[in-house]
Each structure stands twice: as structure tokens, then as C-alpha cells.
Amino acid sequence: MKQLLLHVEDNSLQTAVVQDGVLIQFYMERSAGSSLVGNVYLGKIVNVLPGMEAAFVDIGLGKNAFLYIDDLLHPHADKQPRQKPAIQEIARPGQVVAVQIVKDPIGGKGARVTTHFNLPGRYLVYMPEAGYVGVSKKIGSESERERLRLIGESIRQGQEGIIMRTAAVGESEEALSSDAGKLRRLWDHIVTKTTASNAPCQLHVEAGLLHRVIRDTVASDIGEIWIDHEAKFQEAQSLLGEMAPALKERLKLYIPQDGRELFRYFDVEEQLETAFARKIPLASGGYLICEETEALTVIDVNTGKFTGNNSLEDTVYRTNLEAAELIPRLLRIRDVGGIVIIDFIDMERDESRSSILARMTEEAKEDGTKCSIVGWTRLGLMELTRKKSREAASVRKGELCAACGGTGRQKTAESGNKS
């Protein structure tokens, strides 16, 4: 059974999705410093950089946001000019432009923004100027895809674009049209504020984590929804009544059992501690070493205590296969973004390498965030990319050690400065 657990602690909300006792997803958001992705701003271009084909936009956040030229062109690729114009032809300092954040400010970098607006609803994503209908790739039935595509064409107006989400499967045209209508009215409100506001200013704030989880995660395959906070329980009831009334009865208020908090009772806390560790054990006796940097994440696979029963190739393959099944889940839990390099143990047989690649590709399909398996590099490493829009959960869940600055090392007495 799949369960959704919502744990409120101090100024943070942590949510976990558990399937048959195994943690498969984790999200966390603090009330202070929460994600800005999805927010819409009226900004002012302060600098145009021809060499980078981009512009810096003041949206009132202290650090200027970064706007690529591709995010200034029409959102429908078929309607973009064949010859890409120079950035200075369509952007100039002092120009006022409405933008939406697609990537949070991370480290010393400002937010990344776009003019390709999208507003997510329960069943669909509304794009006011995209001019096309899309259907989630996770919907496998061709007949259902075609049904949703035809409904999308019938309910969109003018140059609107619509992407049907997986939650739209089996829903009536009336329900889908109602969802589109709500988002259309929201966009009209944003446009009205745009004409009456002075840049820089905020025009729209994306929903908080509880709202997003109810909207994006709660589906018919969620058997139970547990929450351990009375006020949030009432809020979740209201959200479910609005977005998924048929699932409202699955929501339950958690009362601590034997003094154990929600995550402890469902054995999630221990799984989180393991998932966020540097050294992560495999059931066979092997282990992973996971190192995260600002630019990329590196994962090393080791056989450890696992010696196998047959040949060395079989031992290596079985360890790698176990790692290939676990790593995509770890990336979801840790919300790793950017480039990921995996150093699997060397295998001699091409069929073994193909099998590991196939398993990674299959497991990545379960990811709600875009995850692309690039494949094997010439050095025998596995390369993949995962969309990065927010800080990794490991950063949000903890903080850098004041003594070592996150390196895990301190100066020894011998290497210290001598007076």
C-alpha cells in the first residue's frame, strides 16, 4: 500500500511517500526561505549580455534574475524564428517584462526566469501563450491520450496551451474544463495586476508545499494520508474537498503512539538518515558513496562485503544491478539536480552494461522530475541529468559544519599554521 505522510515540525513541513514500508519520495519546505519556483514577477531588465545571449532582470529579490534568450522567444518551438535573433534585438536595459521563476536562487546565483508561463492545476497545466496541447508521457494508453488531446483542443481558447497531467486519466471533459477555467481566471488576474503595477514587484505566489502535495501527489493509488498537526489537518481536509473529494476519507490525523513521532512510527526517520548519509549500504553487503557538489553529484558503487557465489562478473553485475535499482530512488529522496555521474564497478560483458542501462532508464521513469539517462561515457561511467529547480533536500535538511565547511576534514596539528 502507498501512504502519504505529512510531518509538521517547528517552521517546516516534511512529506514522505512510502510504498509497502519503503520510502520512495521526500519533500521538505521551511516557512522561511521557501521555494520561489512558480512565482510570477514584473521585472526590469538592467543589463543585456550579448556574449551569453542573456539578460539580467531586477525582480526585487536583491540578486538579479537570469533570463536566457530562449526563454524570451515564443514558447512553441514551431513558432520561433528560424534564425535566432541577437539578444539585444529583443531585450534592452530599462525594458519592463513579466517573468516566472523556474529555478530558485542557489548559492551565489540569482533565480532563473522565463516568459514561458505555466500555471499547474489538479488535472492540467495551463500555458497562456503556448498554442498547443500536450499529454503527459506517463499516460501509456494511446486511446486515453487521444481522448485527452481532443478534450484539450476543445477547451483551450485562442493561443492558449494545455498539458494534460496523469491525474486527468479517466476524468470528464467537464472536470477538465473547470480546471482550465480556474487557471484562466488566475492568469487574467495576473495580467490585470501587470498593467496596474510598477516594476519590480511580485504578481503571483505559487502555492505552498501542502497545497502542491495534495494537488500533485494525491491520487487514487494513495491508500492513506497521515498528518500530525491539527491546523494542517483541517487545511488538508479543505484542499482535498476542493481537489479530490473522493479521497477525503483517506486523510487521518496522527496521534503520537508510545511517544513516537509520525516518521518514527512509520520507520521513515531511519530510512531518511540512511538515504542522506555519505555511505549508503546495499542489502547484499555492498555500498554506495555519494558526494554532492554545487556542479554535480558523484556516486561510487562498491562490492564491500558481498563476495557472491559464482564468478566475479556475476558478483559485480548483481551489485551493480542492486545499485541501479536504488540510485534513482535516492535521487528522488535527496532531490538531487544537475549532472550525476555514477561509477559502477567495471563489467566485462556488453550485455551486463546494457542491462544496467536499461534498469536505470526504467527506474527513472518513476521520477516526477525530468530525469534523463545519458548513458555510458567513454571512461565507463554512467551519466544522467535531473532537472534542478530548487536546492537539494540535503541542503534544506541540514547545514554545513562550521568546523570543516562541508568537506568532512579538519586541519591536523601537523598541517596547521605554525606561529
From TrEMBL:
Residues 38-103 form the S1 motif domain. The keyword Nucleotidyltransferase does not apply. InterPro entries: NA-bd_OB-fold, RNA-bd_AU-1/RNase_E/G, RNase_E/G, S1_domain. Signal peptide: none annotated. PROSITE patterns: S1. The keyword Cytoplasm does not apply. SMART domains: S1 (SM00316). Keywords: Hydrolase, Magnesium, Metal-binding, RNA-binding. GO terms for molecular function: hydrolase activity; metal ion binding; RNA binding; RNA nuclease activity. Pfam families: RNase_E_G (PF10150). GO terms for biological process: rRNA processing. Its cofactor is Mg(2+). GO terms for cellular component: cytoplasm. It comes from the Bacteria. This is Ribonuclease. It comes from Paenibacillus oryzae. The lineage of its organism: Bacteria, Bacillati, Bacillota, Bacilli, Bacillales.
